[in-house]
Amino acid sequence: MTTNCIKFETADIETAKGVGSISTLTFDIDITAEPVTSDNPMAPTHRVLGRSPRGRLVECGGIWKKQNRDTGADYFTMSIRDFGFNANLGKAANQDDDTVQAVIPWGPREAA
């Protein structure tokens, strides 16, 4: 698997477990996405777990399902807290597999 992708167990990403990696110039981590069950509409769909320097699995972020204001289409966004990293998930380039999602970084918006 290439970096900056998550491979989910099924195409129903909202309820599937996933594994992947994220590499930038400042960090390089393997991640696991574990589905979350919650009645809270603001809750993430997944907890994102990474490994500590001692090899322990620790929660480091989350994935949320959002809706595009213009088109109404659903999409997923992810954050990794310790690095201030934010990204959208989307169809990976050159992939026909709907279970593979690219991690597409984006920066915080500038204050107006």
- Major sheet, described briefly? 8 strands, antiparallel, barrel
With strands numbered from the N-terminus, the spatial order across the biggest sheet is: 1-2-3-4-5-6-7-8
User: What percent strand?
Assistant: over 45%
The rounded Rg comes to 14 Å
SSE arrangement, N to C: EEEEEEEE
The helix-and-strand class reads: mainly beta
Distance between the termini: 39 Å
Outline, from the CA principal axes? globular
Low-pLDDT runs:
none
Helical fraction:
under 10%
- Helix count, per DSSP? 0
InterPro entries: DUF736
Protein name: DUF736 family protein
Question: Can you tell me about this structure?
Answer:
The chain has 112 residues and is mainly beta. It has one domain. 0% of the residues lie in helices and 50% in strands. It is built from no helices and eight strands. It has an eight-stranded antiparallel barrel with strand order 1-2-3-4-5-6-7-8. A hairpin with a 4-residue loop joins strand 6 and strand 7. The radius of gyration is 14 Å and the shape is globular. The mean pLDDT is 90.
